[in-house]
Write a structure and sequence with these properties.
This protein is α+β, with helices and mostly antiparallel strands and about 200 residues long. Helices cover about 35% and strands about 15% of the residues. The longest helix has 14 residues.
Length: about 200
């Protein structure tokens, strides 16, 4: 389960790199706002995601801004942006219905998948049907060519957040203030690659 200490660790890693992200974060959502968005979604928001969007609701200038960059690849989404992206992906489904059997999957977006961060056509998404009793939620990746959407990338959003923090702390992700962008300067350990 995601805790404030995990988010503080990530924010400290961003600040240590001189990244603009900490100063670009939008205020977090209240419990009442989270409840209203969950009602719109039609699924409960697991604890991981309530903590995430309760901390900060994306970036002030939106998902495509430099201030929304988590690191090299991923960009923060506000909960409204995540719901818009989910609706867009659901509208693309052809056939429209999500199959009962994964063997019959033809690239459809499931109604219980919620994107959390994005990059072009890729995203990390939470499976809202599979929260653990502690509120953690499994995270999957929709890559540019979505071929492993049913494989769990991380058992919780806390693992993703701590993976980002660890990658930055260990120098595998670096922010160049001169160039105004993130970079991967060299080899990345296999356990951190999914988060870069």
């Amino acid at each position: 389960m995601l805790h404030r200490r995990d988010l503080d660790r990530l924010a400290a890693a961003w600040r240590a790199q001189g990244a603009p992200t900490p100063g670009s974060l939008a205020p977090g959502l209240s419990e009442a706002e989270l409840d209203a968005y969950a009602a719109e979604l039609g699924f409960g928001l697991p604890g991981d995601l309530r903590v995430w969007w309760g901390w900060h609701n994306g970036a002030v200038d939106g998902v495509s801004s430099l201030g929304a960059a988590v690191g090299v690849t991923w960009y923060l989404m506000s909960l409204p942006e995540a719901l818009e992206e989910r609706a867009r992906r659901l509208a693309w489904n052809n056939p429209a219905e999500f199959p009962d059997d994964a063997e019959d999957w033809q690239g459809q977006w499931a109604p219980w998948w919620l994107p959390v961060v994005t990059f072009d056509a890729a995203c990390l998404f939470a499976d809202l049907r599979a929260p653990a009793p502690d509120g953690s939620v499994p995270v999957h990746v929709w890559s540019e060519v979505p071929d492993a959407v049913f494989e769990v990338l991380a058992p919780s959003w806390a693992d993703v957040v701590n993976g980002w923090a660890q990658g930055i702390e260990q120098g595998h992700l670096r922010y160049s203030t001169a160039d105004g962008q993130w970079d991967v300067p060299g080899w990345v350990p296999p356990q951190l690659r999914p988060f870069t």
